[in-house]
Amino acid sequence: MLLVISALSFLTMFIMVYVVLTTYAPMAGVAQIRLKALDKLMERRSDVDEELATPFSQRILSPLTGSVATRLARLTPRAIRRMVEEKLLAAGGMGGMGANEFLLLCVFLGLALPTVIVLVASAADAAVHKIVAFALYGFAVGIYLPFFLLNRKIKSRRHSMVRDLPDVLDLLTVSVEAGLGFDGALHKLSEKMKGALVEEFTRLLNEMRVGVPRRTALLAMANRCNLEDVSVFTTSLIQADQLGVGIGNVLRVQSAAMREKRRQRAQEMAMKAPVKMLLPLVLFIFPTIFVILLGPALIQMVSSLGPK
Question: How many domains does the chain contain in total?
Answer without folding.
Answer: 1
